[in-house]
Amino acid sequence: MSLPTEKFPTLSPGAESALEMDNLVFMGTNVISGTATVVVLATGNETYFGTMVDEIPFDFERWRMSVVVSEREEHHELICKGAAEEMFDICTQVQYDGHTSPLDASRRQRLLEVLRGLN
Questions:
Q1: Cα separation, 12 vs 20, whole angstroms
Q2: Which residue in 3, 10, 17, 71 has the most C-beta neighbors within 10 A?
Q3: pLDDT tens, 27-73?
Q4: DSSP string computed for 40-84
């Protein structure tokens, strides 16, 4: 699960990673308000999300799958996808509007309320 993120029709200055760009959307992106016009840059084997370095397949013990991607040799990112409640249980920080904060009990509760509203 990911929370809604505002996107902008301008370049993303200073973005070092495709994940940091605020003008890109990825496969499966939904528009929840307003409208969007997108340009498909690549399809199939020509798409770019970085080089997959390693993966841990989904399993029913962890309730998530994980991949490590690299866009540059010195920069790796771990991307996990799974049951939101399970993800909240393993996270210690949350990033919102470019700021990183501790994922304390209050924030976790607010995220769970958003999740319930989406289901």
A1: 8
A2: 71
A3: 667 777 777 777 666 666 566 566 778 888 988 888 888 988 887 67
A4: ----GGG--S-EEEEEEEEETTTTEEEEEEEEETTEEEEEEEE-H
The predicted-structure confidence for 39-50, as pLDDT tens digits, reads as follows: 666 666 566 566
Contacts of residue 108, defined as CB under 8 A and 6 or more positions apart, other chains included, come to 88
Residues 6+ apart with CB under 8 A from 71: 16, 17, 18, 50, 51, 77
The tokens describing 99, both together, are: 């700021």
SS3 label, residue 111: helix
Confirm if 100 and 90 have CB atoms less than 8 A apart.
no
